[in-house]
Amino acid sequence: MTKVFAYVLVRTEPGTSHQIVSLRTMPGVVLAHSVFGRFDAVLVVSANSLEELSTKVYEIVSKQPSVVKVETLVCLPTPSEKAPKKKEEIKLVTSFHCPSCHALNEVEAATCFFCGYKFK
Ligand SMILES: [Zn+2]
Question: What is the pTM assigned to this prediction?
Fold first, then answer.
């Protein structure tokens, strides 16, 4: 079952945002933080459906007496994660100049591909 997530922005009576943050132990509350800004607390709430989500937001947040305003931002479904891209291997081509002819040689080369100078 696909879970529904929402960011719940809460404005509280001054000095009471910790009461909202303490709701982090409630089932369905994923995250809860006091924040600076236009709101006093932000919660992430998860549920199994939109109906359940709205009930939860009401039960957990809206009915708290210290809550002045609630804005619920429901997350859009995230497209299913594709198989992680295989990181292109970055091949470090380290080259150096032949001390004899100054041609560029790969670091593993034992002899210069150009003049045959023995490196090792
Ligand atoms: Zn050379």
Answer: 0.63
